[in-house]
Amino acid sequence: MKISKITIKDFRGFPGEYEFVLGEPGKNLLIYGENGAGKSSLFLAIKYFLEASREKMDITQFQNIFVEHGEPTVKLDIMAFDANGDRVDGSQTYEWVSDASPYGQPLIEETAKTRGCLDYKDLLATHYVHLQSGEVDLFTLLINSLIAHSPNPISNKPFYEEWANINNSVSNRLTVREKEDLKRRIEIFNNGIEALLPDLCRKTNEILDFFNQTLTVDLKVQTTADFISKPKQLVYPKIYLKVHYAGQPIEAHHRFLNEARLSAIALSIYFASLLMNPASRLRVLVLDDVLIGIDMSNRMPLLDLLKKLFNHWQIIILTHDRIWFDIIRFQTQKADWCYYEVYANKDRERGYDRPVHRLLNTDGVSELLTRAKKHLLNNDERAAAVYSRAAFEYWVQSICEKKIPVPFTLDNTHPDINKLWEAIKNRLIEKGKLAEYQGKISDLETFRNIVLNPWSHGAGAHVVKAEVQGAIAAVEALKGIDKKIL
Question: What is the DSSP string of 112-126?
Fold first, then answer.
């Protein structure tokens, strides 16, 4: 099952109604959002919607502050089809409003137990919050989040539920028999933790290999849970995260390792726990700027990891980093993804920022050329020229991104389009295809001199409509070359 549409109305940063259409039965979603454009509000809408299936939550507490009489709403359209093309049971719209909730809905509750909704603050729970201690004790994170819904391999009860029952028993007046029963249940809990941790460590280390950081981790039970009669108290376990770097044990690793390695460890632990959870009909992984402080080279393994390990999940990625957004878009264009941009637009009447969202074409070149044509119809030749140049540069970068080797520079945020274009022509020569496309290449280079360069868009430049039309046609004519040379 997949989410096919997300509808948000008057919720946190969204005044009014907004729809994010993911198609049928539901694609993965990549969103670029400026800071303050509502990106985190969308993340929390999904996260809280799922959590509201297990605990009663009042959605009115999240009402947008600029909408006086609004009714905050979050709706998820969820669907799946059988072999005959018919919708399966559970395919419907699930709504969260003041008088209706996903609480108790079996599909949503099932999803809530297995979903991964992560932002950078979740990652900090594996290192930053422990800075005042010499050790990273993950018991609370494990029992409340990571393995909360994983079954104890001995009792087959979810760990969170089992631990909650133990806590509740300690708060009661206990008979001798009840104390013996409590100690027996604590022993089963301890043995279950001991049995589960090796698998969690193994899976975590397998995922860590994707990040190429020469790291391995282990989860050591320092102390087990225990019950003390006098004075009556429950002793919480301590489970320490131990890290080896390049084969060497690292004491207080959370104070020693850099952010890229700490984030790789955090992501690997979270992802491993998700993969060990019982499978659900709808499996959702939502990542909100989880790589916010990591350089680009250390982000790239994430895409390969998601493709190989989470190919049966519906993935939603939100980012404020435009370069990272474009890289993911280049890498996933042929896959089952859709793309949105979200911007903050000043409401002149009220004086606050109002989100504006836009669905992008799967083919970035076609989308940019469509915008160029629209501006041309509105007699805005200068804007049309900018979009036509952007389409050409996007096409060049996306082809070189795939397999064509290009010159390397330390500053890769502004690639030399001339060098990339030369690399594409050299590949055509290697493949013996240059003569076949020579006419189209000549046309393109003619319009590069006239329109498709930054100098033609300045305030003093004269932009001719016919020349912009020719430039658009020249870029469109290049479509298909990538199939010949890659």
Answer: HHH-EEEEHHHHHTT
**Residue from 149, 294, 170 nearest 231 by CA:** 170
Dihedral sign computed on CA atoms, order 283, 289, 290, 295 = positive
Q: What's the Cα-to-Cα distance from 253 to each of 44, 201, 391, 479, rounded to whole Å?
A: 31, 17, 46, 51
Beta pairing, strands 284-288 & 14-21: unpaired
Burial zone of 370 (CB within 10 Å; 0-12 exposed, 13-18 middle, 19+ buried)? middle
Q: Which amino acid is at 119?
A: D
Q: Give tens-digit pLDDT for 199-232.
A: 999 999 999 999 888 999 999 999 999 999 888 8
What's the pTM? 0.82
For residue 249, give the 3-state DSSP assignment. strand
Q: Strand pairing partners for 317? A: 30, 287
Q: Any residues with CB less than 8 A from the CB of 323 and at least 6 apart, and which?
A: 296, 413
Residues 6+ apart with CB under 8 A from 154: 188, 191, 192, 195
Q: Whole-angstrom Cα distance, residue 152 to residue 187?
A: 12
Cβ atoms < 10 Å from Cβ of 64: 21
Write out pLDDT tens, residues 250-263.
Answer: 999 999 999 989 99
Residue type at 292?
A: I
The residue type of 418 is: N
Pairing status of strand 2-11 against strand 14-21: antiparallel
Residue appearing with tokens 């504006």: 356
**Beta strand 28-33 pairing with 314-319:** parallel
